[in-house]
């Protein structure tokens, strides 16, 4: 994915959010395909969390939807869910949540490990 200023801002803020929750250690890259945009480990518990940034223009892209589906279904060796954080501009939060319901990633009974993180745009966060 290209590193536009908006995506760079989202990635930085999402990484800060994940570090605040204890997922501070960078997970070494593996040869797995596709690789997560952000992969962090909680050094205390040893648990893994993935992160993905999504812009408005990504919401309708098939490749973005496939990545969201793929990483929302990932499991550990012990078959437990891997936390998945999705950073999105705050004005696009409702569109992303609707897409997650449409793709059956989140509903009232499923998808508790998938967290939408609304991030203020760089202009409004100053």
Provide an overview of this structure:
- With 126 residues, this protein is an alpha/beta fold.
- The chain contains three helices and five strands; from the N terminus they run αβββαβαβ.
- Strands 1-2-3-4-5 form a five-stranded mixed sheet, sandwiched between helices.
- The two termini are 26 Å apart.
- The mean pLDDT is 87.
A few lines on this structure:
With 126 residues, the chain is α/β, with parallel strands linked by helices. The protein contains three helices and five strands.
Topology diagram in text:
Blueprint: H1 5-20, E1 25-26, E2 38-41, E3 48-53, H2 62-72, E4 83-89, H3 93-102, E5 114-119
Parallel strand pairs: 3-4, 4-5
Antiparallel strand pairs: 1-2, 2-3
Question: Considering DSSP H and I runs of 4 or more, what fraction of the residues is helical?
Answer: 25-40%
Largest sheet: 5 strands, mixed
Strand order of the largest sheet: 1-2-3-4-5
Which percent band covers the strand fraction?
15-25%
Throw out a few tags for this protein.
five-stranded mixed beta sheet, alpha/beta, 29% helix, 126 residues, single chain, 5 strands
